[in-house]
């Protein structure tokens, strides 16, 4: 996409979310640079000093929340003043309360429904936000409604008809409701005072454009718009630059940095036996104590489910969290992990952002993320709220460049985690055979059929002929399968000695780079 198209796209986006896109007031046509609002690492303000009402302060103290965080200190007063806000701060810094508290405080003055709409990209995050509104809004007898996929649409429509004060939704399901009942559901949204986009960088990256247009067209133009994100992307940056009605902008410094109390290591291993190394590391950590908690990130839904089946077959109590399983199963896995009933949760990036999982001792990256920001979001699940934590990434001979990019972004060099290769070799055969059995079981179950149904529906809505739909479905299905075949073929080439030579070359290359930097 060229620069001109980018500008047009962002301008349209501004118009949709009511930030009034247009030419910057500078006479030379340049855009106004972002104005950064500095903050202290630890807020010295009290809740009362930033305008929070006594009844809310009492509830905050019941949850042992004595002082606001920087994002709350900077954004809450501006929201209470009536300003639009764009806030960027690291995961775990209290962004949800930064918009929930002023919304509840304003709702207490003039309660009516639907007062606020909060849009978020994932179901789990929507449920979590709903829980926080319920907890802090109980004195108001708050009525809230969570509208997400995986639940009965008719029951949700009935809840919406009762006009809850706060509506938390994922874009796809809410757009479905509006399109199925434009005169009913859409009319209920005309009263909202607040629109919140949580994880705004993901919401505005283009994948939800169609659904967001349906939703925004149903909203009133007179409202406050609040955008919160863990990272400042080019889309958000451009959005601020072309907005005539400038939102208050706050960005926490070093949003791409990892916390100091997080110990970060990597394991260098051949790709064809990576799963054996994964089991070794998880087992070693798993046996340290009974209450340890381990979050394993996998690249795809299929890989996530295959790893979960493999670990279960090997005797581990694990749960899985990805978009290809039922919502009830996803919720149950997350609840068990939070409660400590299972010690290992295997997930995709659906769990890397926003979700409040209080205690994660170890984050494991089964694959090295291609984007350093994705790495930061993943490992940010550990070492939260001042606790110590650890992260381990499995690096193959093909991932050394990705590791260097991550180290450059976070400003830290990671140490290699030494493992007992002989011990790994003892059960590598069993692990790899179990993993292959898991993959065969997924094939027999027709894993991924739900996604194919959604894809067909999406193509049909574009008005394509049946033959064209079939052609595109086949192309869509053959891509991942072809990549898997190529990877499997690549892994069979070369002897064990060849693999050791390649790893030695990768290690020497990394050591050479470190020596040059010193």
UniProtKB/TrEMBL annotation:
This is RNA helicase. It is an enzyme of class 3 (hydrolase). Its EC number is 3.6.4.13. SMART domains: DEXDc, HELICc. One of its GO terms (molecular function) is hydrolase activity. Belongs to the DEAD box helicase family. PANTHER family: ATP-DEPENDENT RNA HELICASE (PTHR47959:SF24), ATP-DEPENDENT RNA HELICASE RHLE-RELATED (PTHR47959). Residues 76-250 form the Helicase ATP-binding domain. A motif (Q motif) lies at residues 45-73. Residues 476-518 are annotated as: Disordered. The lineage of its organism: Eukaryota, Metazoa, Ecdysozoa, Nematoda, Chromadorea. Keywords: ATP-binding, Helicase, Hydrolase, Nucleotide-binding. GO terms for cellular component: cytosol; P granule. Residues 45-73 form the DEAD-box RNA helicase Q domain. It comes from the Eukaryota. Residues 273-425 form the Helicase C-terminal domain.
């Amino acid at each position: 996409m060229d620069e001109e198209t980018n500008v047009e796209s962002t301008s349209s986006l501004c118009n949709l979310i009511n930030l009034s896109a247009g030419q910057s007031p500078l006479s030379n046509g340049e855009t106004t640079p972002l104005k950064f609002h500095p903050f202290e690492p630890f807020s010295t303000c009290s809740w009362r000093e930033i305008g929070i009402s006594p009844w809310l302060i009492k509830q905050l103290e019941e949850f042992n929340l004595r002082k606001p965080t920087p994002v709350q200190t900077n954004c809450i007063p501006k929201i209470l003043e009536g300003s639009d806000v764009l806030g960027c701060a690291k995961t775990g810094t209290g962004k949800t309360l930064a918009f929930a508290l002023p919304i509840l405080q304003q709702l207490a003055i003039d309660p009516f429904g639907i007062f606020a709409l909060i849009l978020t990209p994932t179901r789990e995050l929507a449920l979590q936000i709903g829980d926080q509104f319920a907890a802090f809004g109980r004195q108001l007898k708050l009525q809230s409604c969570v509208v997400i996929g995986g639940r009965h649409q008719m029951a949700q429509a009935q809840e919406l008809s009762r006009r809850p004060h706060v509506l938390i939704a994922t874009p796809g399901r809410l757009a479905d409701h509006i399109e199925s009942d434009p005169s009913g559901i859409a009319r209920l949204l005309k009263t909202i005072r607040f629109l919140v986009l949580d994880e705004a960088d993901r919401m505005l990256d283009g994948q939800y454009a169609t659904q967001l247009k349906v939703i925004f067209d149903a909203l009133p133009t007179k409202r406050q718009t609040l955008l919160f994100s863990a990272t400042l992307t080019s889309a958000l940056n451009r959005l601020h630059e072309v907005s005539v009605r400038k939102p208050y902008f706050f960005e926490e410094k070093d949003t791409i940095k990892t916390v100091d109390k997080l110990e970060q290591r990597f394991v260098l291993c051949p790709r064809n036996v990576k799963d054996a190394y994964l089991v070794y590391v998880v087992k070693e950590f798993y046996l340290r104590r009974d209450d340890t908690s381990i979050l394993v990130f996998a690249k795809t839904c299929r890989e996530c489910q295959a790893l979960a089946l493999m670990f279960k077959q090997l005797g581990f109590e694990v749960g899985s969290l990805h978009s290809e399983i039922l919502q009830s199963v996803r919720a149950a896995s997350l609840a068990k992990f939070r409660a400590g009933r299972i010690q290992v949760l295997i997930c995709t990036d659906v769990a890397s952002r926003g979700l409040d999982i209080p205690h994660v001792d170890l984050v494991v990256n089964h694959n090295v993320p291609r984007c350093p920001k994705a790495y930061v979001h993943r490992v940010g699940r550990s070492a939260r709220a001042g606790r110590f934590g650890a992260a381990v990434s499995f690096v193959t001979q093909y991932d050394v460049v990705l590791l260097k990019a991550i180290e450059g972004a976070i400003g830290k060099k990671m140490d290699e985690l030494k493992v007992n290769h002989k011990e790994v070799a003892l059960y590598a055969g069993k692990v790899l055979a179990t993993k292959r059995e898991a993959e065969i079981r997924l094939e027999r179950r027709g894993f991924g059929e739900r996604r194919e149904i959604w894809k067909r529906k999406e193509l049909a809505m574009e008005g394509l002929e049946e033959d064209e739909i079939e052609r595109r479905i086949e192309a869509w299905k053959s891509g991942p399968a072809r990549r898997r075949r190529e990877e499997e073929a690549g892994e069979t080439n070369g002897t064990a000695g060849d693999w050791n030579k390649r790893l030695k070359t990768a290690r020497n290359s990394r050591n050479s780079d470190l020596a040059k930097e010193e």
